[in-house]
Amino acid sequence: MGHSDKEGLGTKEMDIRSMSSSRHHMENLPYVHKVGVSPRQNLLKEFASTMKETFFADDPLRPFKDQPGSRRFILGLQAVFPILEWGRNYSLTKLKGDIIAGLTIASLCIPQDIGYSNLANLSPQYGLYSSFVPPLVYAFMGSSRDIAIGPVAVVSLLLGTLLQDEIDPVKHAEEYRRLAFTATFFAGITQAALGFLRLGFLIDFLSHAAIVGFMGGAAITIALQQLKGFLGIQNFTKKADIVSVMHSVVGSAHHGWNWQTVLIGAVFLSFLLFSKYIGKKNKKLFWVPAIAPLISVVLSTFFVYITRADKKGVQIVRHIEKGINPSSVHEIYFSGHYVLKGFKIGVVAGMIALTEAIAIGRTFASMKDYQIDGNKEMVALGTMNIVGSMTSCYVATGSFSRSAVNYMAGCQTAVSNIVMSCVVLLTLELITPLFKYTPNAILSSIIISAVIGLIDYEAALLIWKIDKFDFIACMGAFFGVVFVSVEIGLLIAVSISFSKILLQVTRPRTAVLGKIPGTTVYRNVAQYLDATKVPGTLIVRVDSAIYFSNSNYVKERILRWLTDEEEQLKIKDIARIQFLIVDMSPVIDIDTSGIHALEELHRSLQKRDVQLVLANPGQVVIDKLHASNFANLVGEDKIFLTVADAILTCAPKMMVDEV
Questions:
Q1: What InterPro entries does the record point to (predicted)?
Q2: In which domain, by residue range, is 113 found?
Q3: CA 506, 508, 512 angle in degrees (round to 5)?
């Protein structure tokens, strides 16, 4: 009994010493801040706040605040028609710059429009129509000062490819044209709806890398298809893939090529490429590549006319309808078999056109240091295509080559688009008969020289250096377009972009943290090699929100970090892990599955005699931890403001355990 009493007394003395030691350490600790818990929000207000931040992040109604009714009406008109706002400060100086820019881009757009309409399998006048009405509508509703509106190569090719899969453009020309107008109508509806519903963020799902690959592949496909006109081939494949096109070209080499056509195409293509080289070398000579296409058309047309080369097999345009856009409201399919097909084609073409226009608008806006409203741009682009579909136009959007010329020519406002439209109007009314002897080879040369700039190999190399997964998306889109079709390339681009998102969401990054010497900062030990791990503690950071899609992975990955660390400590014969600290700084949100995963992690750690500690959970996360009672489960004294506070608090306990 005496011996037992002595042992009990010794144990009590040791406990008293330990408690005293622990109290001594706790007294010496600096004040540790607790994680703040915000008061519970009203559910309706919280939902409204979330919806506002999602769809109205730019606070579009701010200018209307505290304004009288008449002023609100004026601001409303200016919001729909920005020209009413900037037009008040318009001056003769700005008009001079806009006239020069408008005339310059008109000289570029007229020959391009005739060629691009061929890509869409439409008569030449429809390309000119699309550079008359849509730019006028955009000038009144668009918010970009520099973007030049009209048909573009990629959208023309995409539209032509998708339409001819449904209707033969030669045998059923009228039905084909009607379906083109229907697709344009629904493209406009899609674009305007995205703007009205403020869903513009959807176009951001098509990544920059995917766009670079898609544009490059489309450029090569467009250039290859121009070999028909460039070489004077009569029987040419209707397929767009490189294998079919090259087979058609090589197969007709002995009897299908026309040497006069090849000569005309080669001479003027060289001239166009040389003029672009001059423009790049000297920015002041930007007008040289801008007017080179029109000069090429004039010279080649005159040459064919005086030599009557059309009698020797040189294919010419022959006829362009004279006059302004006729109404096409009655030609749009609003019911029947082709409505759904027109809708599907329109949505695809509208999204691609929208992506290109927004990218161009943002690029030039950043160069001139002004802001464009993405949602207003969508409404403007959508409205102009809806109106265009009713005035014999096909899908129009922002053209990068014309916008670049517009910018370098010194455009000040969207009035340059109005000037361009007026020139196109005069062309339709007076000049179209003069294009009768224009050789198809020169149109092919103009398109080839225009689309070469879409092959951005420097951007592809940069993507490879920055992100290999992005490069896969880029190359997937590129090879999909080149070897299969435009729509397959687009599908591959979208699929790979979504795959990247899913991969990042379902497999978030995690990192083991260590202490930077001489500081209280804790960082990734793989990034900072001098960072040291705290004995008896494992610090893990989760670099993502914890949702149902990744919660199980996060839990298992943390446990694997713990297992790996314990194995290393066992080999080195070092004290075991007592605390697992999860740095939740990057965790912006957590759902019920995520909390359930933390509960499972807590139970697993208890079985290993390891204490779970949380550091710096954000407002949303801490609110949900309290609402789910997880904060009480793990212990509120185990939730800290920083990793340093957690270590500071846990260290004395570890020292006591070692006594």
A1: S04_transporter_CS (IPR018045), SLC26A/SulP_dom (IPR011547), SLC26A/SulP_fam (IPR001902), STAS_dom (IPR002645), STAS_dom_sf (IPR036513)
A2: 84-501
A3: 150
370 or 466: which leads in pLDDT: 466
Q: How many CB atoms lie within 10 A of CB 322?
A: 13
Query: What residue type is 331 in one-letter code?
Result: E
**Residue 512 and residue 532 in contact, taking contact as beta carbons nearer than 8 Å:** no
φ, ψ (nearest 5 deg) of residue 59: 50, 65
What is the Cα–Cα distance from 328 to 347, expressed in whole angstroms? 20
Nearest-5° Cα angle at 608, 602 to 613 = 40
Q: Which two tokens stand for residue 93?
A: 């100086």
Q: Are 528 and 514 in contact (CB under 8 A)?
A: yes
Q: Is residue 257 within 8 Å of residue 471, measured between CB atoms?
A: no
**Contact at 8 Å (CB) between 412 and 94?**
yes
Angstrom distance (rounded) from CA 299 to CA 423: 20
Residues 487 and 511 in one domain: no
Task: Identify residue 340 by its one-letter amino acid code.
Answer: L
Structure tokens at 69: 């009714």
pTM for the whole structure: 0.79
Kind and range of the H or E run holding 399: strand 397-399
- 612 beta partners: 580
Alpha-carbon span 140 to 136, nearest angstrom: 7
Q: From CA 177, how far away is CA 160, in angstroms rounded?
A: 10
- Domain CATH for 565: 3.30.750.24
419-447, pLDDT tens digit by residue? 999 999 999 999 888 899 999 999 999 99
